[in-house]
Amino acid sequence: MGMPDPTRALIVIDVQRDFCPGGALEVPHGDEVVPVCNRLMAEFQHVVLTQDWHPEGHASFASSHPGRAPYETIELPYGSQVLWPDHCVVGSPGAEFHPELEIARATRIVQKGTHPEIDSYSAFFDNDQTTSTGLAEALRGLGVEHVVLAGLATDFCVLYTAMDARSAGFAVTVIEDGVRGIDLEGSVAAAWNEMMEAGVQRS
What we know:
Mean pLDDT: 97
Number of helices: 4
Shape: globular
Number of strands: 8
CATH class: Alpha Beta
Number of domains: 1
Largest sheet: 6 strands, parallel
Strand order of the largest sheet: 5-2-1-6-7-8
Oligomer: single chain
CATH topology: Rossmann fold
Helix content: 10-25%
Order of helices and strands: EHEEEEHEHEHE
Structural class: alpha/beta
């Protein structure tokens, strides 16, 4: 086996307890991505893990908007926002990585959604599209040209990460076997269509 290609990086997105079965914002079959992610991590020199990392009372939580229910959509200053059950609150058990995810293989961890007023689906930018996590610059500094994505959820954080990676000039591949979606009214199919149109590869 040769050395991993240094121009490729793996981004494992939000494989956290709250997004897996039994969690506060369960992605159906979300835990099935764990062995796939572990296998992939062994093949890359650069491995980024992202972690939803919300303060209590985050603007994306339905509980922060009296009279609103989870999965309703409201308008916030930066645009439409799906309201979620409280999830991945800083320091809570639900914010921890899935216990079987081999996190020791990570070379970088990106925590997102940390701003109380702005949600953040993407590993690169908050949803206002102006607040950067610094990940694109860091990857470019390592000579990375191609990012490979796996994790949760296909139709939200994977989609937004893929689109921002394309906008930043990276080649992008999504590992179909390594993602699972929430699927609100066909949102998984719509996400794949949007990614394909942007030139994302599906592997």
